[in-house]
Amino acid sequence: MAQVSGITIERSNTGMPVYARIDLRKHSDIIPILENKGAEVKKTVKWSAKLLKAFEEKEFSIGDINNFWDE
After folding, report:
1. Which pTM was predicted?
2. Does the N-terminal or the C-terminal CB of the chain have fewer CB atoms within 10 Å?
3. Rounded distance, CA 17 to CA 12, Å?
4. pLDDT at 71 over 80
5. 38 in a domain, yes or no?
6. Is 70 within the bounds of a domain?
7. Would 45 be classed as within a structural domain?
């Protein structure tokens, strides 16, 4: 069988495939398949305690682009 660059199959002691390591930079077409299976591909944002406290203390609102200079 031909080898594919960026994909490595790891096998158990009995020779059964157990893990597949995929370089997602080379095979970015696989990312939607992983997301459909429930894998979280995007990096989550880690909020610091100081930033969370700032969110609680201040009220934020979405501005209107039409009245940008009036505010």
Report:
1. 0.49
2. N
3. 6
4. no
5. yes
6. no
7. yes
What end-to-end distance do the CA atoms of the chain give, in Å? 66
Structural domain contains residue 32: yes
Q: How many domains does the chain have?
A: 1
20-56 residue pLDDT tens: 999 989 998 998 999 899 988 787 778 888 888 887 8
Write down the pLDDT at residue 17.
94
Domain of residue 52 covers 7-59
Cα–Cα–Cα angle for 52, 54, 58, rounded to 5 degrees: 125
In angstroms, the CA 5 to CA 26 distance is 8
DSSP string, 23-55: -TTT-GGGHHHHHHTT---SPPP---HHHHHHH
> What is the maximum alpha-carbon separation in the chain?
72
